[in-house]
Design a protein that fits this description.
By secondary structure, this protein is an all-alpha fold. It contains four helices and no strands.
């Protein structure tokens, strides 16, 4: 079994990441940071296959991916799904 002992959140996030990766791969538009997005999506997938991911690291990955794909409307639904799945792991503690 891969991931965090079959945790459904891990499987849902892996599915969302896979969908975003596929959509990014077939996007005809030139994106200057496409490689950065691909690398971070691959890192997310690897992180989830090695156990329960850390929420701060998930959020950092999300910021990097969102910054890399910019405002490409074709990727917005898939990126939103990744964000929602990351949110499923819980909120970060608020600063003081």
């Amino acid at each position: 079994m891969t991931g965090a002992g079959g945790d459904p959140r891990v499987q849902e996030l892996r599915g969302a990441v896979a969908r975003l990766r596929r959509q990014l791969a077939v996007l005809p538009a030139e994106l200057p940071d496409r490689a950065a997005a691909d690398d971070e999506l691959a890192a997310l997938d690897a992180m989830m296959s090695h156990g329960m991911p850390e929420v701060p690291r998930l959020r950092r990955s999300l910021l990097l991916i969102a910054g890399a794909v910019g405002s490409v409307s074709a990727l917005s639904p898939a990126l939103t799904e990744v964000r929602e799945r990351i949110d499923g792991f819980g909120q970060l503690p608020r600063g003081r």
